[in-house]
């Protein structure tokens, strides 16, 4: 390899390193712009209902009664909704509870039904939707589930069976 070839190879290697570093910075900035305030503390796979159930204090099916305002909870702006609990899969919630969700994470329509995985908010009597999760909407707990377990097998044929299975087989992702 002559001197010119060596210089060209060195320049090409330097350009590749610079391009890789630039891409890494771009991806980091892009991800930072699209992540939520609490994403860094999400230790569970939000696509795995067993890990979501293992992280949640309560998993329940409920119907949104009405929007109840907004609140700043631990520096995260949250929308509040009154939700009538239809069935509890984990925990002992019943009656009507206040559910908070991070602003911008989606809205809940009054009259619509969802399966919520929540954590209790200290001193607020509020149940916060787990960060990065999206409550499952349904028309009936006996309706077919639209997703399956992470291994591709359907855990139950209905919404109720699926979430009962997830709670019965919950995974503690906290380590």
Descriptive report:
This protein is of the alpha+beta class. The chain has helices spanning 3-34, 49-55, 159-168; strands at 58-73, 76-90, 96-102, 113-121, 126-129, 136-138. The protein contains 3 helices and 6 strands, in the order ααββββββα. The chain has a 5-stranded mixed β-barrel with strand order 1-2-3-5-4. It is globular.
For the termini, the CA-CA separation is 53 Å
Number of strands: 6
Lateral arrangement of strands in the main beta sheet: 1-2-3-5-4
Radius of gyration: 22 Å
Please summarize the sheet with the most strands. 5 strands, mixed, barrel
Mean pLDDT: 76
Secondary-structure-derived class: alpha+beta
Number of helices: 3
Assembly category: single chain
Instruction: Provide the helix percentage.
Output: 25-40%
Molecular shape: globular
Low-confidence stretches: 4-40
β-strand percent reads 25-35%
Order of helices and strands: HHEEEEEEH
Features:
globular, alpha+beta, 175 residues, single chain
Summarize the entry for a quick read:
The protein has 175 residues and is an alpha+beta fold. It has three helices and six strands.
How would you summarize the topology of this molecule?
Elements: H1 3-34, H2 49-55, E1 58-73, E2 76-90, E3 96-102, E4 113-121, E5 126-129, E6 136-138, H3 159-168
Parallel strand pairs: 3-5
Antiparallel strand pairs: 1-2, 1-4, 2-3, 4-5, 4-6
Helix pairs in contact: 2-3
